[in-house]
Amino acid sequence: SVSVGHAIEGLAPNPDYYILLTSVDEGGLEGPPSPAIHVPLLSTTFPHEEQAWWAEREDMGRFGWRVGAGHFNDDALEDVVVSAPFEAGGNPRQGAVFIFDGTEKGPLATHGWTSSAGQSAFDVRFGAAIGVADFDADGLDELLVGAPGLDGEAVNVGAFFVYTRACATCPLSINATQSFDGVSAQDQLGFSIAVI
Predict the structure, then answer these.
(1) CA 114, 118, 120, 122 torsion: positive or negative?
(2) Burial 93-106 (b: 16+ CB within 10 A, else e)
(3) Could you give the CA distance from residue 156 to residue 69 in angstroms, rounded to a whole number?
(4) Rg of the Cα atoms in the chain
(5) pLDDT for the residue 104
(6) Beta carbons within 8 Å of 175's beta carbon, 6+ residues apart
(7) Is 126 within 8 Å of 114 (Cβ atoms)?
(8) How far apart are the C-alpha atoms of 93 and 158, rounded to whole Å?
(9) 42 vs 20: CA distance, rounded Å
């Protein structure tokens, strides 16, 4: 079965206001793999079909587990962030995060940025949590991505990764500019991220 509205994020590509609505299999992050996930982008004047946006990834990737919005380039339009913590990559549940650039008609149909933080191990679950904000008060949005299954000095210590922009006209970095690891086994740092 499918639970609609597992992750919801409001964003405002000029000139309309949009709501990003995702659907995820209700098995949960630790549950059975889900089928491909559809992410419709609905305007406040829904149901105008021409304003609906859909994106999907591989089966069992949990695409749409977390969604967000932020400014990750120099066009002043909000871009859409979508995570898939079960994305296989080179190993099951490696995880990945994707950014779809915003336009005046809504996000592009294909992603323009993606990362798995270079993590190729099994069950890292990169993208289990994401956060977007100007954390360092430089006027530019940063992207935080959690990977609670990452092994460090012990099993499942977890980590979260920070992606930044070097300047107002610079794109979001492909490689994380900072990372923070958990300390003890089963800390699972990065399982959730709250922006306050």
Answers:
(1) negative
(2) bbbbbbbbbbeeeb
(3) 28
(4) 16
(5) 78
(6) 115, 117, 118
(7) no
(8) 14
(9) 6
Distance CA 41, CA 80 (A): 10
Token output for 73: 């380039």
Pair 124, 147: CB distance under 8 Å? yes
Token look-up 């993208």 returns 127
Question: Residue 193: CB partners within 8 Å, gap ≥ 6?
Answer: 129, 130, 131, 144, 146, 160
Look up residue 53 and give its two tokens. Answer: 């946006």
Q: Which of 129, 184, 105 is nearest to 152 (CA)?
A: 184
List of E strands, the chain: 2-11, 18-25, 41-43, 67-70, 79-84, 96-100, 102-103, 106-107, 113-115, 129-133, 142-147, 159-163, 178-181
Within 10 angstroms of residue 27's Cβ, the number of other Cβ atoms is: 13
pTM of the model: 0.78
pLDDT digits (tens, 9 = 90+) for 17-70: 444 444 444 444 444 444 334 444 444 444 444 445 666 666 667 888 888 888
| Sign of torsion over alpha carbons 10, 133, 4, 13 | positive
Integer Cα distance of 16 and 104 in angstroms: 8
Tokens of 68: 């967000």
CA distance 84 to 98: 8
- Rounded CA-CA distance 195/151 in Å is 25
DSSP structural state of residue 34: P
